[in-house]
User: Which sequence fits this backbone?
């Protein structure tokens, strides 16, 4: 193993930091010893219409039940907007930077209030009630944030679907949560390319309605002004509706455990799960992590480059920052448009202090050459962050040395859609950094490493990462399927939350996430089940069977490698490969684009018919000399053909 590079906390970071190392140690200890007392105190960081008297009521055993602040009453939209108006009504809440570098605008908290209230009234007047599910399929424009907050304001549950998902994927999500109201835009625009969101929505509704769903209204933001089809009576123009709506709307009284949103995410089996987050605990946890992890000070300009279609956008573009009265930057575009300097130019343009992005973007920009970075100033930067996948030490050092000019700390934040907020991360004034390590648990978080049998591993060790007890931001259930929640997260290691990640703990107690140990791929930080890609492939006429595995990819982290067995009589060809790639893109979306397709006469299986993925992974990695025990294969000869025709020959 290469030598680990330690970056000690610099005096300048310590000076600015909200939390020093003694405070970190003390608070962490207190939070574990007496969670009721710790969170009872920190729960007050948000405003409550009715204060809670109960704090923690959680169990990871049996039926699993997670409740925080359960008798408190609050509202997320109120906390993100109204409570700031007196002090910072005229302060910028959202800086919007368009895809086109000449396109930008600022929205103050007063303006945010009016936009959100008008939209909330539009939802209400069109029959959306507390508890209803509203699907949001939007580009990265302020209206996406207004839509989320308007739902929160009236107690509707939003389900944001990433704009890069296909009509089929959107349909599945509309069906699953029985959502009858969709908010979208005519088109999105990213990197100069248009994305037909309304057309996709029309197709999705057609698919969903065939399966018995019913969508009453589609509210359409005019983004590009291109011509779109229109369903009279169903489709509504956003600008027309809000212009006639009242600019005030009372926030609904929400119990702490009333649902705030559903966000679909991929697991190792079956269809994407509707991860359900609730109101009080989520807001306490996201606002607290946003403040302390990013060391957010009043007046800082904060930029998270994620899309609101992912959990990072929910927690660290919208809810966490706005609950803290922060200035949050929302970017419509991509890192390399018009060119690879874009991120750094936006940092200079808006004087960004805190910048949070994904390793895949860092690696891609590192590949574009240092000039793109060094020609910009970046003097405003005070902190850098990463999220989404393990960051390799080389990329970490480049981010530190070149982007941060060796001056600012990097927080490598490990967390998941399910965790709601950051669980393992350095605090910049408290924890020495090691390139490639997410370092230490946040307050209230108790990681544990276990072996395959669930036995606890102590000291420095590698194993499967579990979390022993609940924290306020944790998901509460899989929407409509609590058994699946229990089964997925609490049954592998009874009584513990299993993350699905592998992890190493070093002698200093630092955590190093090594990636998923289940059948979940992480491609450019996007989560995807191998099973989803397989079922997309198998839905093609000419495919009889498919097995999908990940392999190491320089930029994407993981690439998608597909083994495809064709129907009898079909022949593999480059044209068919292209067709299969197009098919998967249309079934799931461009994020699932296969990198390699190998036609396989048959797949290696055990005698009981299970595909031996271990072998397929090895072959995809071109590591076929170490296939291990193949004696349990039903037909060992299958492997020879696979090795012979492998697509990643070095
Ligand atoms: C927030 C988010 C979760 C999975 C997670 C892990 C990987 C996220 C990471 C990281 C190493 C980090 N992951 N952050 N791995 N270091 N700092 O990404 O949520 O889309 O649900 O993905 O991403 O494998 O289990 P989500």
Assistant:
């Amino acid at each position: 193993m290469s030598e680990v590079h330690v970056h000690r906390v610099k005096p300048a970071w310590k000076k600015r930091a909200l939390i020093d190392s003694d405070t970190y140690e003390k608070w962490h200890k207190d939070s574990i010893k007496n969670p009721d007392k710790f969170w009872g105190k920190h729960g007050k960081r948000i405003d409550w219409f009715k204060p809670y008297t109960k704090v923690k009521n959680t169990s990871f055993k049996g039926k699993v039940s997670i409740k925080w602040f359960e008798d408190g009453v609050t509202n997320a939209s109120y906390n993100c907007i109204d409570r700031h108006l007196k002090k910072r009504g005229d302060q910028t809440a959202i800086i919007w930077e368009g895809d086109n570098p000449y396109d930008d605008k600022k929205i103050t908290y007063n303006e945010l209030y009016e936009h959100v209230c008008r939209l909330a009234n539009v939802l209400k007047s069109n029959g959306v009630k507390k508890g209803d599910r509203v699907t949001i399929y939007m580009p990265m424009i302020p209206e996406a944030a207004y839509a989320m907050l308007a739902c929160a304001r009236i107690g509707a549950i939003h389900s944001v679907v990433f704009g890069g998902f296909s009509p089929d994927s959107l349909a599945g999500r509309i069906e699953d949560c029985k959502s009858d109201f969709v908010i979208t835009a005519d088109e999105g625009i990213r990197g100069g390319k248009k994305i037909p969101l309304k057309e996709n929505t029309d197709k999705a509704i057609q698919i969903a309605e065939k399966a018995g769903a019913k969508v009453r209204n589609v509210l359409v933001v005019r983004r590009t002004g291109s011509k779109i089809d229109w369903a009279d009576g169903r489709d509504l123009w956003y600008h027309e509706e809000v212009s006639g709506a009242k600019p005030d709307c009372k926030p609904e009284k929400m119990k702490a455990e009333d649902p705030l949103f559903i966000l679909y995410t991929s697991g190792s089996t079956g269809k994407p799960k509707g991860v359900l987050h609730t109101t009080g605990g989520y807001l306490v946890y996201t606002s607290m992590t946003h403040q302390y992890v990013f060391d957010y000070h009043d007046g800082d300009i904060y930029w998270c480059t994620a899309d609101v279609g992912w959990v990072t956008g929910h927690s660290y573009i919208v809810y966490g920052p706005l609950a803290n009265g922060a200035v949050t930057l929302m970017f419509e575009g991509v890192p390399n448009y018009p060119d690879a300097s874009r991120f750094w130019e936006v940092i200079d343009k808006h004087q960004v202090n805190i910048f949070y992005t994904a390793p895949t973007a860092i690696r891609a920009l590192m590949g574009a050459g240092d000039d793109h970075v060094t020609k910009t100033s970046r003097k405003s930067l005070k902190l850098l962050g990463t999220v989404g996948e393990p960051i390799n030490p080389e990329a970490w050092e480049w981010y530190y040395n070149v982007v941060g000019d060796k001056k600012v700390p990097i927080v490598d934040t490990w967390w998941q859609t399910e965790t709601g907020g950051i669980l393992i991360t350095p605090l910049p004034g408290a924890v020495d950094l090691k390139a490639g390590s997410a370092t230490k648990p946040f307050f209230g978080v108790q990681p544990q490493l276990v072996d395959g049998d669930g036995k606890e591993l102590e000291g420095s060790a590698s194993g499967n990462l579990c979390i022993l007890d609940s924290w306020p931001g944790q998901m509460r259930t899989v929407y409509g399927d609590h058994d699946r929640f229990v089964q997925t997260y609490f049954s592998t290691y009874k009584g513990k939350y299993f993350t699905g990640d592998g992890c190493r703990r070093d002698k200093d107690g630092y955590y190093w996430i090594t990636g998923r140990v289940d059948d979940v791929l992480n491609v450019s930080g996007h989560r995807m089940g191998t099973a989803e890609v397989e079922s997309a492939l198998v839905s093609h006429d000419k495919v009889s069977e498919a097995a999908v595995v990940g392999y190491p990819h320089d930029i994407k982290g993981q690439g998608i490698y597909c083994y495809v067995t064709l129907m009898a009589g079909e022949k593999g060809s480059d044209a068919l490969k292209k067709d299969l790639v197009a098919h998967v893109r249309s079934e799931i979306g461009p994020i699932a684009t296969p990198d390699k397709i190998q036609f396989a006469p048959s797949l290696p299986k055990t005698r009981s018919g299970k595909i031996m993925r271990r072998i397929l992974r090895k072959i995809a990695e071109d590591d076929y000399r170490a296939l291990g025990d193949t004696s349990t294969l039903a037909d060992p000869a299958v492997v020879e053909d696979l090795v012979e025709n492998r697509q990643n020959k070095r």
